Amino acid sequence: MISAILVLTASACKKGKDAPPPEEAPVNTIITPGNEPGYVYIDGKYSGYKSNGQVKLPAGRHNIGVALENSWIYLRKEVDVTAGAAITFTAADKPAPKVWKALYVGLSETRGNSATGDCSTHFTKAELDAGYEFLQWSLREHFEKYSYGLMQWQLERKDIAEPVMLKKSGEAWYTVEPPVITAKIPEIVPGAYDCVFVFWRESEGTCSFRSNYFGLAWTNPMGEPIKTGFVTVKFDAGNGVAGRIANYKANDPGVWVHEWLHTTGERFYQDKGISMPQPAGGFTVHAAETYGYTYPWMTWYRDMMGGRVPNTLTGLGYLGIGPEAFLRCTVRETALDAACR
């Protein structure tokens, strides 16, 4: 049987030797509002095309999406694609965003066993306000923008006035653990929030809880009792919280989105069948340099969320979450329904 196939194949090649090359299929034109350029997605996958030129789309019924480059909006429609046809998008093709719910927890006093003995660090109400505004800014400028308007974050705030005890591991590794926070805020239960963000002070005077991290995230929300993303930011206030935050915004603004991506980009979206970059040092979010991205990594976070990380390891396709995934179940929705996709 194999020999027959080989003979037929060889014969076909010889017979077609002098035949003219097949004609190229006509290309499609994608028209966006104001002819704004955008990234073209076919059935949820980034195609490598941009919509300010002509693109080749597969014939048949497909979900075609365009992530507009300047206005950060995603448009999508189900269409019957025919060769050479133009596909026109309007503002009416923007899907409603999914609501994600977050809780900001500001710690007024953080207590632990430091190198100088038991001590506490403190944040004033005004300093916790600054941390809250920092998170609000990032949700707006990074989370919602990089999802092309498909995430709408609702943020609540519950500060803790009484001391919160740190867990100390080894000589100098201090963490705020989820059970400590949930004991003080019992409203944190499966299905209540998509992520909890805790903001606390690293050092004050001679009291220091320095550890080799700025932000820390628990990477498998569905494996936690609260089935919720959990992030802490251990903030080095230096000579002033407001000035330090302004410096981070200008030079290294990604701490909140970086840690949130740990909560969704290490297990959560992979478990939903999304192809993500290969981990580096054990973590997908730390693989930026492996895929050719450079500090301060904001284009890495953008492309991870947009599903546009070029798969340079295989040379095939693109990796990351992608707009269509943001229209599926959130963390809290998944926590309430095991079948939720």
Plain-language structure description:
This protein is of the alpha/beta class. The protein has two domains: 71 residues, Immunoglobulin-like (Sandwich), CATH 2.60.40; 246 residues, Collagenase (Catalytic Domain). It contains eight helices and 21 strands. Strand 13 and strand 14 form a beta hairpin. Helix 2 runs parallel beside helix 4. The chain is elongated. The two termini are 44 Å apart. The N terminus is likely disordered.
Keywords:
disordered N terminus, single chain, 8 helices, 4-stranded antiparallel β-sheet, elongated, Collagenase (Catalytic Domain), Immunoglobulin-like, 5-stranded mixed β-sheet, 341 residues, alpha/beta, 2 domains
**Poorly predicted tracts of residues:** 1-18
Globally, the shape reads: elongated
Q: Specify the structural class.
A: alpha/beta
The biggest beta sheet reads: 5 strands, mixed
Count structural domains. 2
- Give, in order, the helices and strands: HEEEEEEEEEEHEEEEHEEEEEHHHEEHH
Beta fraction of the residues?
Answer: 25-35%
Going by CATH, the architecture of the largest domain would be 3-Layer(aba) Sandwich
Number of helices: 8
Query: What's the CATH class label of the largest domain?
Result: Alpha Beta
- In order across it, which strands form the biggest sheet? 11-8-15-19-18
Helix coverage percent of residues? 10-25%
Overall pLDDT: 92
Cα(first) to Cα(last) distance is: 44 Å
CATH topology assignment of the largest domain: Collagenase (Catalytic Domain)
Q: Cα-atom Rg, whole angstroms? A: 25 Å
Count of β-strands: 21
